[in-house]
Amino acid sequence: MAEPTDYYAISFSADPVQLVFFRHGLDRWLAGLRWPESERVDAVLAIAEACGNAVEHAYPIGEPGDVEVTGRVVLGRADRHLVVVVRDRGRWRNDSGDGYGLTTVRACMEKVRIRHDEHGTVVTMTSRTVPLVAAAAPLPRRSAEDPEGFGSAEPPATAHPVIGSAPRLRSV
Questions:
Q1: Helix/strand/coil for 12
Q2: Which residues form the domain of 70?
Q3: Is residue 55 predicted with pLDDT exceeding 80?
């Protein structure tokens, strides 16, 4: 499998069941980037909530539709942050007001912008900054003999198995 990259893109059917798989994949991507756990949890929560809103509100019941998510890591001199875009091609239905969903998204991200028009809704989220990852030893690789990638040692309590090694980030 490939090493984690600083770009993430997925399109999935606007089906609540797909959100479970999406959340898992997003969390693995961020873990592979060695995103700090507390900020990773906030990012996954906010992004999944924005996707959940698209699944629940963008398309009338029975009408097929997709949710598209793109994310990238933006590097600064001493830190990095995410910019993630969640897009649907449905129509804005504000049938429940500004409920807990968008409140949660805004609480977990540094900046949130929502645009809706006849082409659908686009939610652009910018995470809080986190430190750059120093060029560190690669994470353990998975193998058939060691599917969790921990060698003979027990996995640490905070370990998140990741395929490949963490990217070596540099400031620009």
A1: strand
A2: 7-131
A3: yes
Burial label, 61 (beta-carbon count in 10 A; 0-12, 13-18, 19+): exposed
115-124, pLDDT tens digit by residue?
Answer: 999 999 999 9
**Residues 5, 87: Cα–Cα separation, whole Å:** 21
Q: How many CB atoms lie within 10 A of CB 65?
A: 17
- Output the domain CATH number for residue 72: 3.30.565.10
Quick one: pLDDT at residue 159? 38
Specify the number of domains making up the chain. 1
User: Which one-letter amino acid corresponds to residue 58?
Assistant: A
C-beta of residue 76 within 8 angstroms of C-beta of residue 15: no
Please indicate whether residue 140 or residue 19 has the higher confidence score (pLDDT): 19
Q: Which residues does 90 contact at the CB level (< 8 Å), separation at least 6?
A: 14, 54, 57, 58, 59, 63, 65, 120, 121
pTM: 0.74
Is residue 36 classed as helix, strand or coil in its secondary structure?
Answer: coil
Cβ neighbours, 10 Å, residue 142: 16
Tell me, yes or no, whether 169 lies in a domain. no
CA 122 centroid distance within chain: 15
